[in-house]
């Protein structure tokens, strides 16, 4: 049942957990069938539900939400290496060009791909293991009767604007600190906060409608730019790690690729700051 503005926000909590469980179950089935993007969808499902549990933190009672968030975080982390290597390999292939030594580039891509295959196998083993099956059963049980605090009786129309505003203000507080020279980790943190705003806005949109949807769209724009930025940072870090075992000539090619990815950060930072400050 879709909550209305007058319904207690606790109803939306149960709906969010149930929906999250369905998303995760669907992603697990994708892994079982060996479908493309399956591991990524498991990771996204975990992150989305963790975000919802964080959004409704003050509405929850007991320790169940903390335990669930920890289990979801562990599952997402188990899927992280495979997804990261998949993105990095695709990005390296995209940014390599004719001036690079083709043999070196092929070796680098082969190394990344071999790591990806191994990581994907490890991820699939975790996703299809008993721990994930137990997590899904727990989510189903919790969705039916989540333990809630008295604040969960607050009408959705009153509680949700405050919850969404809190996520937006936290994002804005950190985004306001960003400068073109700010450290990569700070840009990454703002990306995560933009994602949290998007998830929160999408959850709240079931009640708040167009205004929350507009917030989600804007947050998605921020997240897209910051996601591209993070991909280049991750690619530069991964390629730098390969230098240790590379000979001088291959290290030179790696260095060229690393600098290319680092240089790609600058226009993305400028585009984000321009978009953010005129919004």
Element string (H = helix, E = strand) = HHHHHHHHHH
Strand content: under 5%
Task: Kindly state the percentage of residues in helix.
Answer: over 70%
Largest sheet descriptor: none
Helices, by number, come to 10
The parts where pLDDT drops under 50 for at least 5 residues are none
Mean pLDDT: 93
Record field, number of beta strands: 0
Structural class: mainly alpha
**Head-to-tail CA distance between termini:** 35 Å
Categorize the overall geometry.
Answer: globular
Q: What does the radius of gyration come to?
A: 21 Å
How would you describe this structure to a colleague?
The longest helix is centred in the C-terminal third of the chain and has 33 residues, at 210-242. It is built from ten helices and no strands. Helix 7 packs antiparallel against helix 8 and helix 8 runs antiparallel to helix 10 (265-278). The mean pLDDT is 93. The chain has helices at 9-32, 38-55, 64-95, 102-127, 130-144, 156-175, 184-208, 210-242, 248-263, 265-278.
């Amino acid at each position: 049942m879709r909550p209305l503005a007058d319904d207690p926000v606790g109803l939306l909590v149960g709906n969010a957990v149930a929906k999250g469980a369905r998303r995760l179950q669907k992603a697990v089935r994708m892994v079982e069938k060996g479908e493309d993007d399956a591991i990524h969808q498991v990771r996204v499902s975990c992150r989305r539900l963790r975000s919802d549990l964080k959004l409704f933190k003050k509405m929850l009672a007991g320790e169940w939400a903390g335990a669930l968030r920890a289990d979801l975080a562990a599952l997402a982390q188990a899927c992280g290496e495979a997804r990261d290597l998949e993105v990095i390999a695709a990005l390296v292939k995209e940014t390599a060009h004719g001036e690079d030594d083709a043999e070196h580039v092929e070796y680098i891509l082969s190394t990344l791909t071999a790591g990806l295959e191994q990581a994907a196998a490890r991820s699939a083993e975790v996703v299809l293991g008993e721990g994930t099956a137990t997590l899904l059963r727990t989510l189903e049980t919790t969705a039916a009767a989540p333990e809630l605090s008295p604040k969960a009786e607050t009408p959705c129309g009153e509680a949700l604007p405050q919850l969404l505003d809190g996520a937006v203000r936290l994002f804005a507080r950190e985004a306001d600190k960003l400068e073109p020279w700010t450290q990569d980790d700070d840009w990454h943190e703002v990306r995560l906060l933009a994602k949290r705003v998007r998830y929160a806005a999408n959850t709240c949109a079931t009640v708040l409608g167009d205004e929350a949807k507009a917030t989600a769209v804007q947050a998605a724009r921020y997240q897209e730019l910051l996601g591209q930025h993070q991909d280049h940072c991750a690619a530069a870090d991964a390629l730098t790690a390969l230098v240790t075992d590379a000979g001088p000539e291959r290290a030179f090619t790696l260095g060229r690729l690393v600098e290319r990815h680092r240089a790609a950060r600058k226009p993305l930072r400028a585009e984000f700051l321009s978009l953010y400050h005129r919004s």
